[in-house]
Task: structure prediction
Amino acid sequence: MEKINILLFIVLPYLSLLVFFFGSIYRYRKYKYEYSSLSSQFLEQKSLFWGSVPFHVGIVLIFLGHLFIVLFPKEVLAWNSNLIRLLTLEIGALILGLSSLFGLTVLLIRRLTNARLRAVTSPMDYIVEFLIFAQIILGIYIAYGYRWGSSWFASVLSPYIISLFTFRPDIQAVSQMPWVIQFHIIGAYLIVLIVPFSRLVHFLVPPIHYIWRPYQQVIWNWGRKKAKSKDEIWTVTRPFNN
Amino acid sequence: MNVRAQISMVFHLDKCIGCHTCSIACKNIWTDRKGAEYMWWNNVETKPGTGYPTKWEDQNVYNGGWRKDGDDIELRGAGKLRGLVNIFHNPHLPVIDDYYEPFTYKYLDLIESPAMDDQPTARPVSLITGKPINIKMGPNWDDDLSGTPDYARKDPNLEVLSEAEREAMFQLEKLAFFYLPRICNHCLNPACVASCPSGAIYKRGEDGIVLINQKVCRAWRMCVTACPYKKSYYNWGTGKSEKCILCYPRLESGYAPACMHSCVGRIRYLGVMLYDADRIHDTACSDEKDLVDSQLDVILNPYDEEVQRAAAANGIANSTLKAAQNSPVYKFVKEWGMALPLHPEFRTLPMLFYVPPLLPVMAKLSTVNNDEQAKKMDERAKHWPDNWLYDTSTEELWGTIEQSRMPLKYMANLFSAGDEGKIVNVMKKLLAIRMHRRRVTVGDVDAQKADIMLKEAGLDSLTADEIYYLTSLAKFDDRFVIPASHREQAIEMLEFTGDVKGSTGFGFMEKPERGL
Result:
């Protein structure tokens, strides 16, 4: 039993993170053309709205919430010391979870029933949808059945995850968890593991810099001024667009 | 003054015969691939007509281009706030049904079907799903069908015309139409560049070609919305946007782009123009009535010594400057003032110019009595009891322009943001040159009359002959003045162009396939 726990809660997370980290970088450098959100709105746009928007809003905020609790457990516990604030947080998170569940269900039905979409669906897309679907179901079940998640997550699981990142893995607490929660954790590792092999890479390249870049972009393939000037050395640089 | 060079084009619409050779030349080279079958980087539309994608000019539907926002301009359907908020679902995205579902026929069924009582047929199948489809739309579905209610009458440019004017246009005997070939305009103030959240789209400094970096595009789809000409297309197969690349691999090796090279009517001209990049923004913000004039003002005179000094300071090669001086585009657009941009009111400052067509205005219908003529006909001959004449005589100097069969208001809506005066100016020039040349070659036009026409159009006989030469007799090298690309200085261009053969022409060796 202990060996399985070590495998699932120490080996698997390190393996996932390594594959995620190096895999994503390798794919970005070697197969940059494949980094895309692979939007299918062009082929079907009516039900996409009811799928994509609630799913993305829900899942992005839930992900950031998990991240926040891992990084700032004390602050979350302090916030949760007041019942009203605790309930606000928990109910808010549950609504976001349900919203992403609703969205993903719509997306799944859309992908299964539309012939045009099936033409652009790879087996990996089904794996991704199944994993995230299972993850959301488990998450909602945990939020409902093991209250209050934000509090025990901050006090029990945050130290475990931080222990992984500080290379002193401590799986004492996590191996005592109910199996539903353990499955949720394993699910998270599996999703991280498949990021570099799936369309999930698009969350690594959000267009944040659009906010501050100027609207117009003019790119010179070669510095003509530099090439003509006697004072400057003309260096060979690979152009941006190649 | 920040002088930059732009490869620019003129399309002489009077010469376009609507043969679609340009579209096919382009398709064969660039878009004959999965996911790109529906794309026509170059297409030819019949006007009046709804175009491709359907009603692309109606920005109330597609929300493309810029609109004036106080003293500034903003993107209509995209931009920093709108683009990022709508990133999960873009409400203004045209979808495949706005273009058409690409299809092929099961030709093999004709050969391989077993012996039957009936002839086998080649059924149409979708190129997306592979399943049989009922074809509802195809490229150029409205070709030459200007009069049918489904297409011509739905042209967004007709909205400014009164009901009576519209009806007059579509009477069968008066019906007139012309062709409008379109490629990417390689704008000075491109909306696609501004709308791209990833920053994948850029304008090349050396020649002004607007390109999408295929490795940076992440399928956020905003360029498709933002381009008011709908010349940025989403490849549903690879999940990347693609657009006309002005055949830059050909241009860099001194060839004309495929669409221009193959043009049967020789309607296309290509050359360099210098422009002042510092004034782009102010120009794009100017009032609608000043848009055309201020856009033409941004284009600089390559003979001006000050411009030449500023160009040299900006690193523009002497060969490019020389090409700008010989540019046929500069002559049509600036010297002769005969070419106008398409839909300048979109405020992208398109750098592709059109000489509006004169042909439909030349003839008019007049009522005559044909009874005497009819009596002379053999009784077995079929004839119609018509009492009108297709009249090509020109008693009044400019009368036919004002009574044009293609209403001036319609033309103005296409080429000058509604200013009929600009259209009349160009038409006067075209007509005056025609009269002048008829005097020279046929000699049945009164010399004085031709001179008056030339003078009123702002031309003299020498210029008229020059325009006539470039319009009708010009050789390949007159129509395409392509500056040297200086491969010795350009690393990108030093690469062996043959490497790209068989790939998509985006300049990299990775197979352009959809990721997992």
Notes: Residues 267-361+404-479 of chain B form a domain with the Alpha-Beta Plaits fold (CATH 3.30.70). The first helix of chain B runs from residue 21 to 31. Chain B touches chain A through 67 residues (CB under 8 Å).
